[in-house]
Structure formats: C-alpha cells, structure tokens
C-alpha cells in the first residue's frame, strides 16, 4: 500500500509517474506527516514510510478515478511496508498514528472510506495466519469505534503475494470477511516485480482502478444527476 512501483533492487525509484497518477492541484490533496494538506503526488508515502524507498502506489490512480464523481479527494496515507497486522493493534504506534491522522483529516472534511492492503508479512507463520481473521476483524471494529464511524466503508485487498507459505490462508480470510460495509478486491494475477512480492507501477495503477470501482459501486449513493 505504501507503493514500491518503480523502485528497483537497489532501492532507487525511477521517478516514472503514469498519466493515471498525475497530480490534480484543484481536486486531489494529501495529509502530509505534519498533518497539513498539500497537493497530492507520488510517492504519496514518502514522509510516512520513511525507512524504505517509496514509489508509485494505488492512491493516485484511485483518486483520479473517483474525482469526477465525488469532487475534491483528500488522501490520508498511513501505510508502513513489511508490517504484520498485530503491529496495527489498538495501542501500537502504527494504529494510534493512523487514528490521529484520520481525526486530523476529519477537521477538513468527511472520512469516506478506509483502503487496506496488508498481509504479506503475516503469511510467514502458521500462528500469524491462524490469528489473522480475529486480528483483521478487531482492527475494523477498533477503527470504526475510535473514529465514531460505525458504518465506515472499508475496501480491503486480497494479497497477490507473500513472504511465506500461508498466502492462501491469508487470502481466504480476506475474501471471507462478512462484516457490513466491508468489501474485498483481489490483487491475484496483477503483475509483480522481480522480487515476486511487490506490485509493478502498472499493477498499482490497475489496483487503484479496482479500488475506485469498488468504492463507486458499493459506497457512492446513486443520484439522478450522475
């Protein structure tokens, strides 16, 4: 989710931004690490996931794909790559920072959805895989409770790859969550980089479009004007 599209094995980002990820200074903004709004552009997570090189993720193609229907889009990047879901439990730095950022963003607008793409690091052990369903459902419950948004739309991604042999177990959980207002898009089959773990730039663009389609289809009220 933090975006490794275009980042090579030497941790260098090629700087290529596809047209689908172009900035739109009038419509697409992001909340930076200092909780200030600025024009959004890739890498969206450069001041959030600071210990790794960030490139293209799904956020900009998502925003460009929904802006004509929703108007101004505020992105609130919170992802940190290579993390297990237990590191996002309530009380952890990652979770509390995400909630803090979401609350700050809510002062300037309305929180419309959470996009969640995680799980590769949980595919390494039987224990993590076995606990994944409980941990994911707890995360959803906690975020909704702490933001006072009991029906917050959540679009999660079924992982396309992983760091261990329990990928299918994680994918089963992700695709099988049956909580209200939670939908899943499947990244399986999207093009992977040479590391067989992260999505290519093209695949990230595609994933952004899949997330946008899910949001527009499931969560955007249809009006007679559209």
Automatic annotation (TrEMBL):
Residue ranges of domain Sialate O-acetylesterase in the record: 1-216
Presence of the UniProt keyword ATP-binding in the record: no
MF annotations from Gene Ontology: hydrolase activity
Gene3D superfamilies the record matches: SGNH hydrolase (3.40.50.1110)
Nuclease recorded as keyword: no
Pfam families given in the database record: SASA
UniProt keyword annotations, A-Z: Hydrolase
Xref: SUPFAM superfamilies: SGNH hydrolase
UniProt-recorded name of the protein: Carbohydrate esterase
Biological classification of the source: Eukaryota, Viridiplantae, Streptophyta, Embryophyta, Tracheophyta
């Amino acid at each position: 989710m933090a975006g490794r599209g275009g980042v090579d094995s030497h941790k260098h980002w090629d700087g290529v931004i596809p047209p689908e990820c172009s900035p739109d200074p009038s419509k697409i903004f992001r909340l930076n690490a200092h909780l200030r709004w600025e024009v959004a552009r890739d890498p969206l997570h450069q001041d959030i996931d600071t210990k790794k090189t960030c490139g293209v993720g799904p956020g900009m193609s998502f925003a460009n794909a929904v802006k004509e229907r929703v108007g101004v889009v505020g992105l609130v990047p919170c992802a940190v790559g290579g993390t297990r879901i237990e590191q996002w439990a309530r009380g952890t730095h990652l979770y509390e920072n995400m909630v803090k950022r979401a609350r700050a963003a809510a002062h300037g607008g309305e929180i419309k959805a959470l996009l969640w793409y995680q799980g590769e690091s949980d595919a390494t052990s039987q224990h993590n895989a076995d606990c994944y369903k409980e941990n994911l459902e707890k995360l959803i419950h906690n975020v909704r409770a702490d933001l006072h948004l009991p029906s917050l739309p959540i679009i999660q991604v079924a992982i396309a790859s992983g760091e261990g042999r329990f990928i299918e177990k994680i994918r089963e959980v992700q695709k099988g969550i049956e909580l209200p207002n939670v939908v899943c898009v499947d990244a399986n089959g999207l093009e992977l980089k040479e590391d067989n773990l992260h999505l290519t730039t093209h695949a990230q663009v595609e994933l952004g479009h899949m997330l946008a389609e899910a949001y527009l289809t499931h969560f955007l009220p249809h009006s007679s004007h559209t």
